[in-house]
């Protein structure tokens, strides 16, 4: 093109590539006012099993707008789509309601990533065998810490009382006022059944302590696999994932996989002390970063002044704090 031709061009000759639109991208998410409420009762490879208020059991996927929002057993969620529960149907989870309690754990005390085990349970049933395998108090203490920090009421369920006495173990927890249920393998767990009715309760314990046996008695037709204890006193893992099972009396029991350790890296000493109103006020006057273990670990801890008033209870609290700090043997 010559210079003369260039001079003849005006703005009408300029070709402009069309843009992608001037309408701003909205970050507003749909409200899903028509979403139905359900409870998550199982999780398996990106699919969630949900119990509707109508009684139907629905399979659902997580909606794209939720991103990576964690959805765990016990969560109350909003669901849209096909909620009939018919075979080969799939609904969408569009909302996760605020949780009333959370049971969390980490793989160990150095793991920075906490994992939510169960949401919205009102009770944590710590299943411990009195023999075969023998009870491990460090594990009980750590479960107590997780329950207090997560807003669950701890309940100590002692199994196999036909093999050993519960007296020595119970003496360690008298000052903590922990509810206790004692069961035998040759009897129906009537007392435990009554405590679980019309609640959402989570069962946790080492493999081989009889947890799945209890679930099979509590929920007819549950058919949870029952393992045996090895020659070294360790149970074999029989439950592979958490699942909520509806109780005939009403309510739900969540059976969790047997675990060998219970990491508490996500819990601070103050989280534990807050569960004890008689100590919480004094702890507020402690030096910054106080672990509330007392001297020599924590010089200046104000809880030391309460020793004359509640020696046994403070000793029990500090045992839990020591457990959180990894100062005990809690592994299987």
Automatic annotation (TrEMBL):
Residue span, EngC GTPase domain: 119-260
InterPro entries found in the cross-reference section: G_CP_dom, P-loop_NTPase, Ribosome_biogen_GTPase_RsgA, RsgA_GTPase_dom
Biased composition (Basic residues): 17-30
PROSITE patterns the record matches: ENGC_GTPASE, G_CP
Pfam families: RsgA_GTPase
UniProt keyword annotation of Disulfide bond present: no
Occurrences of domain CP-type G (ranges): 110-262
Signal sequence segment: none
Region of interest (Disordered), residue spans: 1-35
Keywords: GTP-binding, Nucleotide-binding
Biased composition (Basic and acidic residues): 1-16
NCBIfam families in the cross-refs: ribosome small subunit-dependent GTPase A (TIGR00157)
Protein name as catalogued: Ribosome small subunit-dependent GTPase A
Origin species: Lentzea kristufekii
């Amino acid at each position: 093109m010559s210079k003369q031709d260039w001079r003849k061009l005006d703005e009408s000759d300029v070709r402009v590539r069309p843009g992608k639109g001037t309408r701003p991208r909205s970050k507003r998410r749909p409200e899903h006012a028509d979403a139905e409420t359900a409870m998550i009762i199982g999780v398996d490879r990106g699919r969630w099993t949900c119990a509707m208020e109508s009684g139907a059991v629905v399979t659902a996927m997580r909606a794209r707008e939720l991103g990576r929002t964690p959805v765990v057993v016990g969560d109350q969620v909003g669901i849209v789509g096909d909620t009939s529960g018919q075979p080969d149907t799939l609904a969408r989870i569009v909302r996760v309601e605020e949780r009333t309690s959370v049971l969390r754990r980490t793989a160990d005390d150095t793991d920075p990533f906490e994992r939510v085990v169960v949401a919205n349970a009102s009770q944590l049933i710590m299943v411990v065998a009195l023999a075969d395998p023998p009870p491990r108090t460090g594990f009980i203490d750590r479960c107590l810490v997780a329950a207090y920090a997560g807003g669950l009421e701890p309940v100590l369920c002692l199994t196999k009382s036909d093999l050993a006495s519960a007296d020595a173990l119970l003496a360690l927890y008298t000052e903590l006022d922990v509810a206790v249920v004692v069961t035998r393998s040759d009897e129906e767990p009537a007392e435990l059944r009554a405590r679980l009715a019309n609640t959402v309760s989570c069962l946790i314990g080492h493999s081989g302590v009889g947890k799945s046996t209890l679930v099979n008695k509590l929920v007819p037709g549950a058919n949870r696999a029952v393992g045996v204890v090895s020659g070294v006193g360790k149970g074999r893992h029989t439950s592979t994932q958490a699942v909520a099972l509806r109780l005939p009396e009403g309510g739900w029991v969540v059976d969790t996989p047997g675990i060998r350790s219970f990491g508490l890296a996500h819990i601070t000493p103050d989280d534990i002390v807050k569960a004890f109103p008689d100590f919480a006020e004094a702890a507020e006057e402690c030096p910054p970063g106080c672990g509330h273990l007392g001297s020599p670990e924590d010089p200046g801890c104000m809880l030391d002044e309460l020793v004359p008033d509640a020696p046994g209870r403070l000793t029990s609290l500090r045992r839990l704090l020591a457990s959180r700090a990894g100062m005990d043997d809690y592994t299987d």
